[in-house]
Specification:
This protein is mainly alpha-helical. It has 4 helices and no strands.
């Protein structure tokens, strides 16, 4: 049974007024926890930006020290950039899953 159906089943059954208030509070608590989880997952999107900056700064330093190695180091720099951005996309995807699938 999914989270949203629990609140619907409780809400649709014949309950006293006090139990209905508890069911609504339960649903609000689930929605609030869902938003907090999505916010925590989305906070990881900014971290890969540091990784991208470190990747390119290390490449520029290496290219400045040995210019003849720059073409050989560029694929490693691009790979580091791609992996850092993939991490950002994965954390963004988890945040969207928290909001729209498990909500």
């Amino acid at each position: 049974m999914q989270r949203g159906t629990v609140a619907k089943v409780v809400r649709s059954s014949a309950l006293t007024q006090s139990n209905r208030g508890a069911a609504i509070a339960y649903e609000v608590t689930l929605n609030g926890a869902n938003l907090i989880g999505a916010g925590a997952a989305a906070s990881g999107v900014g971290v890969p930006a540091i990784g991208v900056a470190m990747c390119f700064s290390a490449y520029m330093l290496a290219a400045a020290r040995q210019p003849n190695m720059a073409p050989k180091l560029l694929p490693y720099c691009i790979m580091g950039f791609a992996l850092s951005e993939a991490l950002a996309l994965f954390t963004f995807m988890i945040a969207l899953l928290e909001l729209f699938v498990y909500g």
